[in-house]
Amino acid sequence: SENSLESLVSIGNICRSPIAEAVFKKLVTDEQLEHKWMTDSAAVSDWNVGRFPDSRALSCLRNHGIETTHKARQVTKEDFQTFDHILCMDESNLRDLNRKSNQVKDCKAKIELLGTYDPQKQLIIEDPYYGSEKDFETVYEQCLRCCKAFLEKYH
Prior knowledge:
Layout: E1 4-10, H1 16-30, E2 37-43, H2 55-63, H3 77-82, E3 85-88, H4 91-101, E4 110-113, H5 133-154
Parallel strand pairs: 1-2, 1-3, 3-4
Pfam family, one: LMWPc
Subcellular location: Cytoplasm
Active site: 16, 127 (proton donor)
């Protein structure tokens, strides 16, 4: 079967999207589906390009036995032509991505909120940057629920 490609997007690509990317990669590995998925995360902005995820995001992932070597990058035109799914964290991401995708010929990516897959119906994954460790944990839990449901749907 054809490989599915998934990209996860947030504003700066140092908190939410690297957590979602790492969670999804672990789920895919646990299910032995690595050959079917190419997963990456990216930012709408260029603020943090080249930076590692926020240390609180890294420690949250580590608490759940997950490592990541991701470095922040910005969404490219090619992403819209390459990825099957681009999942984002909130409405401003969604607006920005839809606007960017309109400037891309042959955009094949389906752009939607990751939260649309949440069985608990939490549509928006809030940015934990100005929050506490607990907020990063909430993001992790949301990402885990959504990524599981997404994988079940498209696996």
